Give the backbone structure.
Amino acid sequence: MNQDLFEIYQNNMIDENMEYEWMIMPVLKQYDAGDAVMILQEKLHILDFYSGSTTGSFDHATKEAVMNFQIANRLNPTGIVDEETWKLLFEKTTLPVNQMFIKVDNNEEESNTRQSNFVGIVIDPGHGGDDPGAIGNGIIEKNMNLENSLYMYRRFNELGVPVVLTRSTDETLTPTERVNRVLNAFGNSPNVIVLSNHINSGGGEGAEVIYALRNNNVLPNKILEEIGKAGQKTRRVYQRPSTTNPALDYYYMLRNTGSTQALIIEYGFLDNVNDANRLKRYHLDYVEAAIKAVMNYLDLPYNQEVEGLYTVVRGDTLWSIANRFGTTVDAIIRLNNLTSYTLNIGQQLRIPGAEIPEVPEIPSEGTNYTLHTVVRGDTLWSLANKFNTTVAEIRALNNLTSNTLSLGQILRIPGAEVPSEGTNYTLHTVVRGDTLWSLANQFNTTVAEIRALNNLTSDALSLGQVLRIPRAEIPGEGTNYTLHTVVRGDTLWSLASRFNTTVAEIRALNNLTSDALSLGQVLRIPSTFIVYTVVSGDTLWSIASRFRTTVDEIKRLNNLTSNLLSKGQQLLIKI
Ligand SMILES: [Zn+2]
């Protein structure tokens, strides 16, 4: 294996971006040996293609496992682990690899000891300078990490906690420099907490906290729990040993940070649209949640922020914001030390007294109205619009004396205009637990279709809301699939095998939630074939090369017994 590249892999200079790791793996074939083969065997094992042990030698059983993996993933079963095969292996093992290493370990220490021994917090804004981290959906990781960390720094200062930053500008830091700054801040001690702030990428949704092998999961669990309470999805808390030496941490920020209590907080995935949208609006809420968890862990007083945070959107003015939150322009200016009246989109403002109010009496569901819980962004006007009613009606039904709404407030919404059943849709009344996604799944449609049919501008549903649901239609022929009508004897497995695809792909393409098929059901089948007409000069080899397949594969698909082709001959080609 290329030594330089392997060193990068081992030292994890590429950080946590799974996305790039496969790129540095060498091509492997039978009789190769070494660490890369061990990684290969581990991955095949996790994916259930290999049941042998992790020997590091590419033997016959390993080759067979590789071929089976390739077949299952519609790659040519060459038994050679090329770039494409590595990529898929990494993609498919991202989650299970991490899950494998979740340790259950609940030795809750005495929080008194924590508090009395506690020395300080080092905040590490991940990446920076030449290393942007992950980029996607309008987020550059290094910038959001810095913004989050500066906020965290300011808040810990306010809370009277000793705190140091590894960088406070857009600075390039080598792993060694970064680690040195961590260890020089308060010394190398288990009573130092290191919070490395990151935004994830690589296909996933929600926050994660990774902690060092030397530590327990009490603090990471508290942090993830609080981030969840702040409205972000949460994935898991886990440890990750190095693939080559399981006694060491995989991430250098955990491996090389001495005996400190170091953890990496991934607030969400910027390559996931939902996460990215939440992060853009609420990232500081999630950071505040992490701060709260740390204070709670240390048993130090946490001043519940009385001011909420509000992110400026297009069209906002200081006056409209003050109005919405029932405060004054002056109070916002004072609280945020603003020097001008100009606001920038995305700017975070602290709002005086905008905490979610206690709801003294929850109105019960009635026959003439449904209930709606006010979320960020709701105005009387937007609600009237959404529910096809008027501001006056909502005000009357709720005895409102002003237009100001508070987050969490429960409103009666007049239910007069209920959509009627149409030819292209059926009606569904939202019950507890419904989400756009679950409904799309249940009714064999898409979130986009439901949103469009109901003119929804957000994904929030309210109990009792009546939605139009597109009627399941017989799918039309598309470019990426062909249609198949289910006949007696068909199973998802037999179809997958016949059409050279996978059960998972057929299920996904048809939004199937079970494996049961009914006679006459029309299924979309991923189209993986084209019909190619032989022209003069063609050989099996040239065709195979053009379509990135193999001579053997073409012969197998077309039952050819020789390599001879005739002009005009039609061949089925797997693409
Ligand atoms: Zn990162």
Remarks:
- The chain has a mean pLDDT of 79.
- The first helix runs from residue 3 to 11.
- The chain has six domains: 3-100, 111-297, 308-351, 369-470, 481-527, 530-574.
